[in-house]
Amino acid sequence: MKLYLSHTSPYGRLCLTRARLLNLNDLELHFLDPWQNPGELEALNPFSQIPLLLTDSGEAIYNSHLICQYLAPEEVPSAAELAVTAYATTLLDTAVQAFKLEKKAGESREHFLVKRCLEALARALPLAPALHPAARESWPQMMLGVCLLTVKLRYPEIFTAHARSDTQQAVSVFEQWDFVQRTQPEALQTQAPATLADLP
Asked: pTM for this one?
């Protein structure tokens, strides 16, 4: 299998983390910039979006949540686990939407969609499920950690002002985990790993 992703995509980071938990060390990694609409990506995904998983049978799956589901089809999450992943993914989607409008479209924080997203982040952060960094084998917990860390990196002032102290402390511990360090955008760009095994 081959995973197409970018160095900076938090959705790609989610897929890397899921694959790591499943020990899919042979997973090939192919980094590219979807904003450049590369022909290789467009041929597999007409929306030119990443991450994209090319299966061994040649099927292209291009939604991070569906990719993660495909990688572990036998796992059936509980209602409590789904509640954590629902919070995490919505938090991430909201942060990414605001970030794209600001950084890619040049909108100000007074733009009504940007403002709406940032206000939602401020409301949601105090209500975050408890993050337990020691639970390194729990997919919902790892997903929550990646999503909270993304908000901290993209909107540090909002994270600091609105996340609970236990959340901030847990994220600080989470981001020191070796694999989290190795999947930082700068680290991925420097390492240029060809397979998941190159990210021990």
From this structure: 0.94
